[in-house]
Amino acid sequence: MPDIIQLLPDAIANQIAAGEVVQRPASAVKELLENSVDAGARRITLIIKDAGKSLIQVVDDGIGMSETDARLSLERHATSKIRKTEDLFTLRTMGFRGEALASIAAVSQMELKTRPADREIGTLIYVEGSEVRRQEPVAAEVGTSVSVRNLFFNIPARRNFLKSNSVELRHINEEFQRIAIAHPHIAFTYYINDTLECELPPGKLSHRIVSLFGKSYQKQLAPCSEETDLVKLHGYVGRPDAAKRTRGEQFIFVNNRFIRSNYLHHAVMTAFEGLLPEGAYPFYTIFLEIDPRHIDVNIHPTKTEIKFDDERSIYGVVLAAVRQAIGAHNLMPAIDFQEDVNIMTRLEKASSEQAREIYFDERFNTPLQRSNLKRWEELLDTSTLAQASTQPVRELRFESAVNQPDQPTAVDRWLVQLDNRYILRQVRAGLMIVDQQAAHERILFERNLDRLMNRSGESQQSLFPQTVEMSPADFALILEMTPEIRALGFRFEVFGRYSFLIEGIPAHVNAGREKELFEGLLEQFKLNQATLSLPINENLALALARRASIRSGQPLQKEEMASIIDQLMACRTPNLTPDGKPTFFIFEFGKIESYFSRP
Ligand code: ADP
Ligand code: MG
To answer: Residue of the nearest CA to atom 19 in ligand 1?
Structure first.
């Protein structure tokens, strides 16, 4: 038998590779723009005609290429960006596969014009379907211009497969947006069919967002940032009330590369939980910087998927940062509360480092926590607090003039809900501001925990038992925790392979959404696992509290507000959420007075 295996001619191999790299005009746009970014351009112009079907041109003022490099850049696996395997792990550039130009050249009529700063004269190369038709010296600006005409001219099936101009243009716009956001310091000019589509001056990220999406974004952006050993995060999130019904303005970048991640999207949405109308998507632009050693960008040729080795921690960081941004942003009134050092922020400071241990710290079981419910406001009186001789509370010192024992004891009973999120109430020391969701979480957490400890969770039977299917890993996790979950008040049985039949849920939770509750519990449990290291009991108690608590945004009756505050004061640790955030603080009279300059 004769030998039949042959190496493919380059042109064919390139065409095959092109199928992966260049799916549509937008993919070529992306590759060309990224090359310009990698070339250190300060200004990039994108010119599109006929939705990229007749022309895609990218002009930059980057480092350009020598004659030899220009020729080589069109070869497959020709790249200036990595030289050895290790480079793959320290990647900082957008490209690295050395496939883009070769692939685009294989399926179009491409003209490359380029000049590096140290040459007088530039190079022009004209390629058609991988064949170099012309190469000559040419007068050119420093930088590179690549024109791609008649994409897929030699693959009619591909060309016919392209969608309508409006669809293809939408894809191009998306790619353009992503790169423009990721590189606010680069000036961009964008023409569509000879009309100027947009002109983006170089500047800060916030400016770039506003010039891309419009002036109205100026007011709705909340900055977020966070830094851990693993990851550095910065970016902006939009106000919940400005969220849109369509997706498309959600951006996550890892080391300046746009990525798609349902997992991290979920983290953001969780942070917005309870604040968004059903089916609305908030604007966000989040940049993560991670040592490239901890990620693998190589899993997909178009590179919008990415693998992290510690996905869960990153989830936790994103969640925390966004949550923080939303909170801080909505709380940004004319008065800067941050500056305030009041009772509770001090108490919180004193205990925040120990917050995790505090859950059960017997020392914390002070008269403050065992308070007589009906007269809890007395306990909030500074003089009483100062006398309480237990460790965390002893940290408190009160220099304030409010400390006057002969103050009237009758406290006005007014109770107000602010913005459907906070409960305001006068107490002896001043104005008490309670975060309703945080407070309710603390209350439910302690109750759930008691149920778990005493195995005493009461259950309500479901009218219609529901089955819940899950992954083998989740199934195993639930099996492992069955006694604990039952103790909370859930009734369920194994029901076939990897599924459970939910027959009852805890008595104190609203019925009707058993399946969601059960799944939510599991999800929250796993999330807690990722972000806090808690023992199973605490984690479960917290997970259910999170799922079942009153939300921010929920209007409350006066009795409900009163009851929340009463129950909160009966908690062992009323001042902190289970994960250590404040549940309330007191805006002291002294401080209020100081705002009116009357010491
Ligand atoms: P990659 O970007 O993965 O290296 P490409 O095929 O996109 O592969 O580009 C091949 C090489 O051509 C790049 O490594 C770079 O050296 C050079 N190159 C491409 N575009 C430009 C540009 N706009 N300016 C300067 N050099 C470029
Ligand atoms: Mg490239």
So the answer is: 35
